[in-house]
Amino acid sequence: MRLSRETPTFVGTRGPRRSWSWPIENGVVVAVAPVLDISDLTVEFDTPEGTVRAVDHVSYSVDAGETLAVVGETGCGKSVTVLAALGLLGAGRIVSGAVTFGGADLLDMPAKKRRRLLGHDLTMVFQNPMTALNPVMTVGRQVAETLLVHEPKMSRGTARDRAIELLAMVGVPQPDVRYNQYPHEFSGGMCQRVVIAMAIANKPRLIVADEPTTAVDVTIQAQLLDLLRVAREETGAAVVMITHDLGVVAEVAERVAVMYAGRVVEMAPVEQIFRSPRHPYTVGLLSCLPRLDRDVSELIPIPGAPPDLRDVARGCPFEPRCEMSAARSACQNTRPPLMPADPNSVSACHFVDEVESWARARRGNVEEAA
Ligand SMILES: Nc1ncnc2c1ncn2[C@@H]1O[C@H](COP(=O)(O)OP(=O)(O)OP(=O)(O)O)[C@@H](O)[C@H]1O
């Protein structure tokens, strides 16, 4: 089954049954906004121990058909950024920022309208598929319900047929038989395939995948990544892929946003991130990545741990762990803004011009010692 769009050339020109559409005048799209645009977003949580600034002036956007990977160590704000952007934040508070979805203001949107977008134009795949699936409903019916919620006029028979087609498309064997089974009769990887089927059922414009392959073994991981890639190609959706795994990034992303302590510290095309990172934290992340052409002894862990987000020092948050610029006055006293590092990338490092040569020298030293 091909998930073709009504108009294959542009994702926005769909029929009137859509809950949302791109701005079109006289049949022409008048403004091609990024699918998702997050601008200067700051999110805080009030806790008994103090205020946690989980997201600190984060900006990024993703275009139709593009995969943006958001990477960083655990707790750096990757998930809270998207949850806040999509209006799914539980306890936290948005302190500042703007979020648009195809040009429409998501933060100011009435909750009812936003709910209509969720699960339809804007879908999510989370780490644990069991949290997304209802244990007491057959998987097929769950896929069919996803279709029916957004197209109530669809007949039950059509929804069933389309659900079976979707199950087949995501690689569920014997989909007509498996349609009637419950999630506990599926493996973790197979459950995630069902979740992906639900995520793409309504041909979304944006798919947010938050660690979608972390809970499955590596062979299944590769299959699921492949599936997500096909899903993106078939739907033309924009994808935000949240992961701490640079191997996943290399597999799926066109662009990468690296987050540290609630902030984006580097953003660049994927080849550039791997070839010539422009922030010492990115260099550190890459140095921890096992590679076939390197000995294990050449892996260099990043010393220390990320800061407590209730009390981030006023300088560069990475400074206490930074092996390039530690103890320099600018790093200790002034928060480096995210600035263009070259025509393709931005970096939040006071000494961005030194990063490449430092990284090269560091690599040389390690190889010599190995
Ligand atoms: N309900 C909450 N109350 C207080 N702090 C929270 C709450 N939810 C998240 N945080 C904090 O916000 C920060 C960012 O969390 P987030 O889940 O976005 O991190 P992450 O980068 O996605 O990490 P992971 O890879 O582990 O999912 C963390 O330090 C976390 O402790």
CATH architecture of the largest domain: 3-Layer(aba) Sandwich
What count of structural domains?
2
| Large-scale geometry | globular
Return the CATH class of the largest domain.
Alpha Beta
In whole angstroms, how far apart are the ends?
51 Å
Low-confidence stretches: 1-22
Tally the beta strands.
14
The CATH superfamily of the largest domain turns out to be: P-loop containing nucleotide triphosphate hydrolases
> Which molecules are bound in this entry?
adenosine-5'-triphosphate
CATH topology annotation of the largest domain: Rossmann fold
Largest sheet: 8 strands, mixed
Order of helices and strands: EEEEEHEEHEHHHHHEHEHEEHHHEEH
Helix-strand category: alpha/beta
Helix content estimate: 25-40%
* Largest sheet: spatial strand order: 8-9-10-5-11-12-14-13
Mean pLDDT: 87
Main location: membrane
Keywords: ATP-binding, Cell membrane, Membrane, Nucleotide-binding, Transport
Organism: Planosporangium thailandense
Domain ABC transporter: 36-286
Tags for this model:
Rossmann fold; 2 domains; transport; 13 helices; alpha/beta; 8-stranded mixed beta sheet; ATP-binding; nucleotide-binding; 370 residues; 4-stranded antiparallel beta sheet; binds adenosine-5'-triphosphate; 22% strand
Concise structural overview:
Keywords: ATP-binding, Cell membrane, Membrane, Nucleotide-binding, Transport. With 370 residues, this protein is of the alpha/beta class.
What does this structure look like?
The structure is a single chain. The strands form three sheets. The chain has an eight-stranded mixed β-sheet, with helices on both faces. Strands 4-3-6-7 form a four-stranded antiparallel β-sheet. The chain is globular, with a radius of gyration of 22 Å. The chain has helices at 78-85, 111-117, 129-132, 139-150, 156-169, 175-178, 188-200, 218-235, 246-252, 270-275, 280-287, 329-333, 352-369, and strands at residues 24-25, 28-29, 36-47, 50-62, 67-71, 93-101, 104-105, 122-125, 206-210, 238-243, 255-260, 263-269, 339-342, 345-347. α4 (139-150) packs across α5 (156-169). It is built from 13 helices and 14 strands. It has two domains: 33-253, Rossmann fold (3-Layer(aba) Sandwich); 277-369, no CATH class. It starts with 23 loop residues before the first strand and ends with a helix. The chain has 370 residues and is α/β, with parallel strands linked by helices. Helix content is 34%, strand content 22%. The longest helix has 18 residues, at 218-235. Residues 45, 47, 52, 54, 72, 74-80, 91, 244, 309 line the site of adenosine-5'-triphosphate. One of its GO terms (molecular function) is ATP binding. Keywords: ATP-binding, Cell membrane, Membrane, Nucleotide-binding, Transport. InterPro entries: AAA+_ATPase (IPR003593), ABC_Ni/Peptide_Import (IPR050388), ABC_transporter-like_ATP-bd (IPR003439), ABC_transporter-like_CS (IPR017871), Oligopep_ABC_C (IPR013563), P-loop_NTPase (IPR027417). It is a peripheral membrane protein. It is found in: Cell membrane.
